[in-house]
Amino acid sequence: MHSPITGTAAGVPFTALPPADDGAAQLIVTWHMLDAPRSDAAFAAALPMHDLPAWRVHLGMPMCGARMVDGSMDAGLELMRKDPLMSYLHAFVRQAFEEFPAALESVRAQLPVDDGPIGVLGGSLGGAVALRVLADTEIPVFAGAVVNAAVRMRSVVDLFPGDYPYDAESEKAVDGLDFVAKADRIAAHAPLLVVSGELDHPGLRTDASDLVDAVGERAELLSIPGLAHPLAEEPGIEPAPQLPPAREVDAGLTSWFRRHLADAGPVPSSA
User: Fold this and answer.
1) Cα-based distances in Å from 129 to 4, 22, 25, 76, 99
2) How far is CA 270 from CA 24, 52, 101, 192, in A?
3) Average pLDDT of the chain, as a whole number
């Protein structure tokens, strides 16, 4: 088993896990949770997908991991307290989404990955980034997957205490992150696996099921017994031993992406 490779792609920190032969292969890109595991390195340890013959490149979300301010999550938590939607949830998804094309180009320049369709995976808020790639871009994707994802951002906002004071701007922002409403675009882009912990927040469980129903025959739902919302123990910043429910998620993701890797086509011999 190879050691993780760390680096930066167009300003975005990443943790990359090579395939077993360490050579040219297809690419799967991930975005981690803001719950544990809340860094690219920790997400790579929780969901390494070691048996896949592909590069797994885990990108860092804004203000997490190597991007923390003064080595802590305090600055991000202050944004959450200021405005959980516009300063935190929406802002983080927008930044991660907007910086992805340049990061993808940089990853391809640094690692022996092919230039064909990619796989995308996101957990929790990172799931919203993966779903935006599927719904709002034409980047070729051979398969997508999300785990305990922010499928409808309004449901995530509802997890915060009090009634959120929506206005015209925030209504537009939250509706733009409703991926059940964008299911047709997702279905036209790539097959999707929706992983949902049976102990996740009830609203998020409902949204996961609604997304699968709306996407239709190109989507599958995988329910994981005993899995709440996080995939790792706190503090979730450094790599940690894989928990049993995360191991089940990892196996499901490995099987899903392996099934669809052939759709990405062969890696060119010059790669």
Assistant:
1) 23, 28, 23, 18, 11
2) 9, 21, 23, 30
3) 93
Q: Which amino acid is at 151?
A: V
* Residue 31, φ and ψ in degrees, nearest 5: -130, 130
- CB-CB contact of 65 with 158 (8 Å): no
Domains of the chain: 5-264 (3.40.50.1820)
Strand partners, 123: 147
Find the radius of gyration of the CA atoms of the chain: 17
CA–CA separation, 98 and 118 (whole Å): 17
Enter the tokens of residue 253.
């993701």
The whole model's pTM is what?
Answer: 0.95
Q: How many helices (H) and strands (E) does the chain have?
A: 9, 8
| Chain CA centroid to CA 217, Å | 22
Residue 159: count of CB within 10 angstroms of its CB: 12
Confidence grade of residue 1 (pLDDT, cut at 50, 70, 90) = low
Q: At what angle do helices 168-175 and 90-110 cross, to 10 degrees?
A: 40
3-state secondary structure of 158: coil
Instruction: Give percent of the chain above pLDDT 70.
Output: 96
pLDDT at 176 over 70: yes
Q: Are 69 and 17 in contact (CB under 8 A)?
A: no
pLDDT at 219 over 60: yes
Sorted by sequence, the CB contacts under 8 Å of residue 95 that are 6+ apart come out as 62
Please, what is the end-to-end C-alpha distance for the chain in angstroms?
22
Segment 111-158, tens digit of pLDDT: 999 899 999 999 999 999 999 999 999 999 999 999 999 999 999 999
